[in-house]
Amino acid sequence: MALSACNAGPWPSGDVHATQVRAHGLRATAEQLDAAAARVGARADELVYEGPAGERFRASVHELRDELRREAGRIRTVAHVLSRAAGTLLEQQRAWQRRTAEFERQAADDRARRAAGR
User: Fold this and answer.
1) What gap in Å lies between CA 12 and CA 98, rounded to an integer?
2) Which of 35, 68, 79, 115 has the smallest number of Cβ neighbours within 10 A?
């Protein structure tokens, strides 16, 4: 086993599942922000508040709505990066396991040849 670990290189450390769960949670947060943005915008549009003050109020609320949407987009970007990182890590861990299994098979073959040569 020590031979395999040495030849396969260091284990690609990280928790794939935890990273995927975090990415999922971030996507859910982004969806919640999008929904809140839609509600805020709709409520502002429903108000019957006229004149310059009403226009300023609606503009301010729409600015808030747009900022919520932008923040949701940034959060989705982070979630996407985490998802990709989890996928990359998973593939690295699987490759390490394949290399380790191959080195173990080679070591077993070498032992068998040495035993047959005695």
Assistant:
1) 13
2) 115
